[in-house]
Amino acid sequence: MILPRHGLISSRLHYFQTVARLGSIRRAAQALNVAPSAISRTIQHLEQELGAPLFERARQRLKLTSAGEILVYHAGASVAELDRARAFIDDLQGLRRGSVSIAAVESVARGLLPETLSRFWSRYPDVAVQVTTTGSQQAFEAVARGECDLAIAFDARPPKGTQRLAGANLRLGALVPPKHALAARRGVRLREFAAERVILSDASLTLGSSIEAAILGSGIELKPIAVTNSIHLMSAFAVRGHGVTFQTRVGVERELEEGELVFVPFNDPSLRPRKLMLIARGKAHLAAGPAALAAMLSEAIQRLDGR
DNA sequence: ACTCGTACATCCACCGGCGA
DNA sequence: TCGCCGGTGGATGTACGAGT
């Protein structure tokens, strides 16, 4: 049994509209892919219900009566309203039990994302979320390829076909233990850590490459005690007093809140703020679930701007 | 004018899915 | 399980146009 595109709610109106448009039950039947008899009977039912003929049967041609003209006008409005209602209902269902996929850099997955998802799930508890941690450029490319709905990353170029939804400039700084000599300072220079044990991120992270460029540009020689691509390890080493590390506040929210580390921003002009960005494949592509999460993430990212 | 082929709407019997 | 509803295919009646 082939149902017309509007289902039972408006199939009669849809049949009627098609017959009125084509002026023939047979052509309407071909257009709708049903038997002519089905349409004929549907029209008869409508006429019985309304108590008035909708077509004049003359010379093998169906011509709308005045009642038919009135119904054509109102049926068009009704079908359009049903389409609108269907779109709203689809969106509502997407928010009730849809899914969202996100690619994010590790630092975002440690703090910003869990915090925002807690708020998201308090409103939309049945929307499933798939989170993949990866490098910045890879995260953005995953969105461009349609493999995920949203991506959050640092200092990466949004690929063609994607749209930037939010951005924030985040200062780079040193993460030091509370008892460190520089912990109370309002700002520091990179060269002040020349004699220190430092924990650096490797060049596979955008963080690593921007710090490496600043080190090379200033001619400072640092003594890295550890080099890693893990934001988690960098902060864990720093908390245990193995050395100081350099990054933004994103990813170490818990350590800062609990007083395990202190963030001291850099004053070096060569250490420019890092740009955190949220992208999607264009707002028009976002279903209800991803759109709702994107709105919450945008708000959270914009609150970070300048910090 | 009549016949014939074609196109169309309608009627009827029957089938299958779905909900009470 | 049964009734309702919407589907299909075949039969039938009607109208039209072309050919004779």
Automatic annotation (TrEMBL):
GO terms for molecular function: DNA binding; DNA-binding transcription factor activity. One of its GO terms (cellular component) is cytosol. It comes from the Bacteria. Transmembrane segments: none annotated. Keywords: DNA-binding, Transcription, Transcription regulation. Residues 8-65 form the HTH lysR-type domain. Belongs to the LysR transcriptional regulatory family. This is LysR family transcriptional regulator.
